[in-house]
UniProtKB/TrEMBL annotation:
InterPro entries for the chain: Creatinase/aminopeptidase-like, Pept_M24, Peptidase_M24_C, X-Pro_aminopeptidase_P
One of the record's GO molecular function terms: aminopeptidase activity
Lineage top rank: taxon: Eukaryota
Family note: Belongs to the peptidase M24B family.
One Pfam family named in its UniProt record: Peptidase_M24_C
Protein name: XPP2 aminopeptidase
Keyword ATP-binding part of the UniProt annotation: no
Keywords: Aminopeptidase, Hydrolase, Protease
Positions of the Peptidase M24 C-terminal domain: 159-222
Residues of the signal peptide: none
Limits of the Peptidase M24 domain: 4-149
């Protein structure tokens, strides 16, 4: 874990199916650092929770699939992660992402989307993590790690850039309102789920984790 957390008698309480949970997870390994946040609801989310989650996901997808010129500063494209929230008067009060160190710092300078970060370049790793929070009610964040890569564009004199999401964890289907998503966003999700199945599925089977493999197949259906 990124930091030690343990329940205390004064602050611990029982989990229930009637609320949202935000899991900010990660670990440091010899071949890299992970920092992945997922938000889940095991019961029946409210219409606001479902819409807010879906719009956070839309922002995550819109930034992840963006194609942009080389030497673009992160702050120039940051608002793509917020636009779906802005459309309905919602926002979040933290940064949209930070660099990730390779077995170094979880928040690794100088990559990111703030005004004092360096321009994005191929080979950089950054998080993409829009969110939405209601004090005392619920919090949503969807965080993936993405690699800056060259984009396959049909024309142009110099290679443009885009992101390749390397965090392979499904999103919570229970919280997605498909009617809000565009055809391109749905196609992106389906491609992402195909990648998760192809890369994570065989490893779960190799380790004979059948229950986990069934869960993965269920969560990555088109």
């Amino acid at each position: 874990p990124l930091s030690p957390h343990s329940p205390a008698n004064g602050s611990s309480r029982q989990l229930s199916e009637d609320e949202m949970y935000l899991f900010d997870t990660g670990g440091q390994y010899l071949d890299g650092t992970t920092d992945i946040t997922r938000t889940v609801h095991w019961g029946v989310p409210t219409p606001l929770q479902k819409e807010a989650y879906t719009r956070v996901l839309m922002g995550n997808i819109d930034l992840a699939r963006l194609v942009f010129p080389p030497n673009t500063a992160g702050r120039t494209v940051e608002s793509f992660a917020r636009r779906a929230l802005w459309d309905v008067g919602l926002n979040y009060g933290h940064g949209t992402g930070h660099g990730i160190g390779n077995f170094l710092s979880v928040h690794e300078w100088p990559v990111g989307f703030q005004s004092n970060n360096v321009p994005l370049a191929s080979g950089m790793f950054t998080s993409i993590e829009p969110g939405y929070y209601r004090d005392g009610e619920f919090g949503i964040r969807i965080e993936d790690i993405a690699l800056v890569v060259e984009a396959q564009t049909e024309s142009g004199d110099e290679p443009f850039l885009t992101f390749e999401v390397v965090s392979l964890v499904p999103y919570d289907r229970n919280l997605i309102d498909l009617s809000l998503l565009s055809a391109e966003q749905i196609q992106y999700l389906n491609n992402y789920y195909e990648t998760i199945r192809a890369r994570v599925g065989p490893e779960l089977q190799r380790q004979q984790l059948q229950e986990e493999h069934r869960w993965l197949q269920r969560c990555t259906e088109p």
